[in-house]
């Protein structure tokens, strides 16, 4: 079987527990690129949260950002842009503020006119925001949604919630905005996006743009928000650090993100030597 494209989640998959890229993983990416097999980074992160990885380790690759609402090629040119319109995103933020939920909202936006992404938060002092900045090596801007140009697309709204309150916040948002996709991606994170846009839909969109059959695809993931993507590709690999429940769904379990899981799996299927 000859595979023609590889997709990889970032946190818990591409990066180890210290948010670093292991030497063998970098070697694997470079081997794929030498063989003209695209290695696509697919993440809930914004482009600004992914660029530092590429710059630190000296490689470029296509990026699927905001869990699927933005696709960039290797030169960081937008191939596909989706998202909430500004008015709709403003309604969500107003509702969160009105209900005084125990959460910190984040607006992630891509401006199609100048190819710049913006991360807006209510407070730069919130410890949840400070922690996120330290992990992704990107800076948030204090402000409101009204800072954005009318043409901007809001790739996603992220709510960093009190874990004891996240379920009630999720239920309230789903009741108020049934037309949106509202999903819990961790014990503290809620992602609010356009309905129907997922990592899986982005994989299909990119493969269609590049005329690559889904039967020639490989993907790596480690968590619940990777399930649909892993079900979409021909060869899905679950990282060894994934929740036990997921290991019952996907038979191909490679080693963990701290043990060269991506490198070993790609070697196993003959994509690298």
Summarize the structure.
The chain has 273 residues and is of the alpha/beta class.
Explained architecture:
The protein has helices spanning 10-14, 23-34, 47-57, 86-99, 127-136, 166-176, 199-209, 227-232, 244-247, 261-268, and strands spanning 5-8, 39-42, 63-65, 70-72, 78-81, 103-111, 116-121, 141-142, 153-161, 180-184, 189-194, 217-221, 235-238. With 273 residues, it is of the alpha/beta class. It has two domains: 5-81 and 198-268, HAD superfamily/HAD-like (Rossmann fold, 3-Layer(aba) Sandwich), CATH 3.40.50; 86-194, Hypothetical Protein, Haloacid Dehalogenase-like Hydrolase, Chain: A, domain 2. The strands form two sheets. It has a seven-stranded mixed beta sheet. β10 (180-184) and β11 form a beta hairpin. α2 (23-34) runs parallel beside α10 (261-268). It is globular and about 55 Å long.
């Amino acid at each position: 079987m000859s595979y023609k494209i590889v997709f990889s989640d970032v946190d818990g998959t591409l990066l180890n527990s210290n948010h670093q890229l292991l030497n063998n993983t970098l070697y694997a990416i470079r081997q794929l690129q030498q063989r003209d097999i695209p290695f696509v980074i697919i993440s809930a992160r914004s482009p600004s949260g992914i660029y530092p990885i590429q710059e630190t380790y000296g490689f470029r690759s296509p990026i699927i950002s905001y869990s699927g609402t933005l696709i960039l090629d290797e030169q960081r040119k937008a191939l596909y842009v989706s998202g909430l319109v500004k008015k709709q995103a403003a309604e969500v933020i107003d509702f969160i503020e009105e209900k005084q939920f125990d959460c910190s909202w984040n607006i992630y936006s891509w401006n199609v006119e100048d190819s710049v992404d913006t991360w807006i938060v209510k407070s730069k002092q919130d410890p949840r925001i400070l922690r996120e900045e330290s992990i992704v090596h990107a800076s948030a801007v204090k402000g409101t949604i009204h800072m954005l140009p009318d043409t901007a697309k809001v790739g996603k709204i992220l709510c960093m919630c009190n874990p004891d309150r996240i379920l009630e916040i999720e239920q309230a948002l789903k009741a108020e905005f049934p037309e949106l996709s509202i999903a819990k991606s961790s014990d503290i994170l809620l992602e609010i996006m356009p309905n129907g846009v997922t990592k899986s839909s982005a994989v299909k969109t990119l493969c269609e743009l590049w005329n690559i059959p889904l039967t020639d695809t490989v993907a790596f993931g480690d968590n619940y928000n990777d399930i649909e993507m892993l079900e979409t590709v021909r060869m899905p690999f679950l990282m060894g650090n994934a929740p036990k429940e997921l290991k019952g769904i996907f038979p191909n379990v490679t080693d963990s993100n701290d043990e060269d899981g991506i490198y070993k799996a790609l070697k196993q299927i003959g994509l690298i030597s």
